[in-house]
Amino acid sequence: MKKALLEDLALLILRAGSGAMILTHGYPKLMRLIGDEPIKFMDLLGIGSTASLALATFAEFFCGTLLILGFKTRLATIPLMITMLTAAFVAHGADPFGRKELPLLYFIVFLFIMIFGAGKFSLDALGKKSLL
Known about the structure:
The chain crosses the membrane at residues 44-68, 75-92, 104-123. Its main location: membrane. It is a multi-pass membrane protein. Belongs to the DoxX family. Pfam families: DoxX. With 132 residues, the protein is mostly helical. The chain has one domain (3-121). Helix content is 77%, strand content 0%. It has five helices and no strands. The protein has helices at residues 3-34, 49-69, 73-91, 97-116, 123-131. α1 crosses α4, α2 packs across α3 and α3 packs antiparallel against α4 (97-116). The longest helix is centred in the N-terminal third of the chain and has 32 residues, at 3-34. The chain is globular and about 50 Å long. The model has no long low-confidence stretch (mean pLDDT 93).
């Protein structure tokens, strides 16, 4: 197999895998956001519990979905990275490193995807071909 094909396949696996895994955090937040129960969520940035939950939901659920599809991939990683840094240093700021480790690992993965893009197996790449 050619190196470029392997790189694109690796980007697909990393992008779709990390997007699917972050959805397991975003979907419950979405259900809380649209549910009937009063919203109980940390007000991490002083903007209110509902707004904080909405921002985390947007990043983890909606941007996670965009990541899986490879659509607007680099833009989708920005809210995800901000959310992961907020989780690591604000929500878990006083916690031991073990609680910061997962959001920091996600941050590194999303940073990698932002730098290298979605790869050939993505809607971003499909859109580029239609412009030619």
